[in-house]
C-alpha cells in the first residue's frame, strides 16, 4: 500500500481539498499539521517551506493544485476526457483568482493581517461575492449533473466546496442568497467517507 504524508499548517486552507479527496478515495494518509506556536522551530529543520507538501514513498509533490491533479489522475477524478480535464482546470484557476481577490478581507477577518474588518467586507468581500458566486451557479446548471462537470465528481468539487464553506464561515448570510450553492456544498460534504470526516474534523475558520 502507498504511504502518504500530507504536511500543512493547522488549518483547512490549501490542504483541505486534498484531505477531502484522500478520504473520498479511502486512501490512508498521515495528516501532519504545524501550529503557529511550533512553526518557527519546525521551519528551521525543513528543506522547503512551500506548503502543502505530499510525500509519496520518499518523493514529494508541492503546492495544492499540483497535489490534487496528481491524486485525481490516480483515482479517475480529473474528468472523463481531455475536454472535461480542461473544464476542471479552468474552474480551478477561476476559483483561485476569486480567492485572491477576496483574500484581503479573509486574512483580516481570520486575524492573519491587520485591517478594518467592516471596511474590507464592504469594499472587497461583498462586491466580489456578488460578482462571482452567480458564475458558479451558472457552471453548476450547465454541467447537467449535481457537480461541476457532466461526468460527476472531480477534484475541483472539493476545492469549490471548501471555498464556499470558508465564505459561509466569514459571513453566514451570503450563502442564503445562493441556495443552489448551499445545496451543492452539502452534497459534496455528504459524499461517502467525506461526511464522516467533516463531522469530526477540527473546527477552523479557514
TrEMBL record:
GO terms for cellular component: cytoplasm. Residues 2-79 form the GST N-terminal domain. One of its GO terms (biological process) is glutathione metabolic process. Pfam families: GST_C_3 (PF14497). It is an enzyme of class 2 (transferase). It catalyses: RX + glutathione = an S-substituted glutathione + a halide anion + H(+). SUPFAM superfamilies: GST C-terminal domain-like (SSF47616), Thioredoxin-like (SSF52833). It comes from the Eukaryota. Gene3D superfamilies: 1.20.1050.10, Glutaredoxin. Residues 81-206 form the GST C-terminal domain. Keywords: Transferase. One of its GO terms (molecular function) is glutathione transferase activity. Its EC number is 2.5.1.18. Belongs to the GST superfamily. Sigma family. This is glutathione transferase. It comes from Acrobeloides nanus.
Amino acid at each position: 500500500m502507498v504511504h502518504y504524508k500530507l504536511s500543512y499548517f493547522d488549518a483547512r486552507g490549501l490542504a483541505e481539498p486534498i484531505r477531502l479527496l484522500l478520504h473520498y478515495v479511502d486512501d490512508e494518509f498521515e495528516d501532519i499539521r504545524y501550529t503557529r506556536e511550533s512553526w518557527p522551530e519546525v521551519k528551521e529543520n525543513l528543506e522547503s517551506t512551500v506548503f502543502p507538501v505530499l510525500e509519496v514513498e520518499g518523493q514529494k509533490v508541492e503546492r495544492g493544485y499540483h497535489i490534487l491533479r496528481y491524486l485525481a489522475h490516480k483515482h479517475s477524478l480529473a474528468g472523463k476526457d481531455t475536454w472535461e480535464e480542461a473544464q476542471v482546470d479552468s474552474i480551478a484557476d477561476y476559483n483561485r483568482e476569486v480567492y485572491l481577490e477576496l483574500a484581503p478581507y479573509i486574512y483580516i477577518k481570520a486575524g492573519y493581517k491587520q485591517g478594518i474588518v467592516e471596511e474590507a467586507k464592504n469594499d472587497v468581500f461583498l462586491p466580489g461575492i456578488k460578482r462571482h458566486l452567480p458564475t458558479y451557479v451558472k457552471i453548476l446548471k450547465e454541467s447537467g449533473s449535481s457537480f461541476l462537470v457532466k461526468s460527476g465528481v472531480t477534484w475541483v468539487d472539493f476545492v469549490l466546496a471548501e471555498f464556499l464553506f470558508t465564505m459561509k464561515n466569514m459571513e453566514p448570510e451570503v450563502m442564503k442568497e445562493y441556495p443552489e450553492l448551499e445545496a451543492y456544498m452539502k452534497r459534496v460534504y455528504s459524499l461517502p467517507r467525506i461526511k464522516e470526516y467533516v463531522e469530526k474534523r477540527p473546527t477552523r475558520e479557514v
